[in-house]
Amino acid sequence: MQNQHEQYENARKRTKQKKRLYFHFFLFIIGSVFLAIANKFFGFGDQFIADWYIIAILIWSFLFIMHVVNVYITNRFFNKEWERIQTDKILAKHDKKIVKLEKKVLKEERFKESTASRQKKNQVITIIAAAAKNNEIGKDNKLIWHLSNDLKRFKQLTSGHAIIMGRKTFESFPKALPNRTNVVITRDLNYTAENAVVVHSLQEALEITKEDNQPFIIGGGEIYKQALSVAHKIELTRVDHDFEADTFFPELNSSWKEIMREDCFKDDKHDYNYSFITYERA
Fold it and tell me: Which contacts of 105-109 are long-range, i.e. CB under 8 A and separated by 24 or more positions?
């Protein structure tokens, strides 16, 4: 009954539209003839512009054509049914976005649960990095300074543990670093690395290193950004100098508290002052 009522109302509306169109058509014919007679036989309007009635008829013709288009095209095809279809399409796109967002939230929640589980096992996810005064960490996929004590400290802290890094960081080494489990993150599903484990997300990297009580995240810049939300500790070497760089360490917010610092000064083997700083999440 509802459908029949809608069909009846639509038919009645279309009939009224066509009735108005037919009336407009007869009015247009009669009006055009009247304008032509008024001009040709009575000279009406000649004092303004010659053949002005032709211009008037052309303008009226345009309005009449617009009326025809409105009745037979616009109101016929862009009716309530068209509106319903378009609304359904928009709602379908909206639903897809909601589903995608829900999957993302679920993935993040699982990531947090996994991180919390590791924390219960006393696992300490640690970021280790060396950054200059303005957070510079590298250029052209290379280090931009050489501090032998920093390299010794890096080796001492990470030996025997898993080291997690991006593809570019791994490729900056001559080979996989010894005495450590090298884990490489890349979006390239076909990527292979000798003496290293290849994964495709930070979450996957942390999952396969969950038995390590202190996996280290060693770069580069994008991996550091992702790791800040899950890391428990940061071992940072701060180099007291400005450098030209294209890769940077992310800014630390107030959730990170400095718990230890060792200031070191330049000497024959070190061209810059530097500090070893340890941060923990507050």
Answer: 107/203
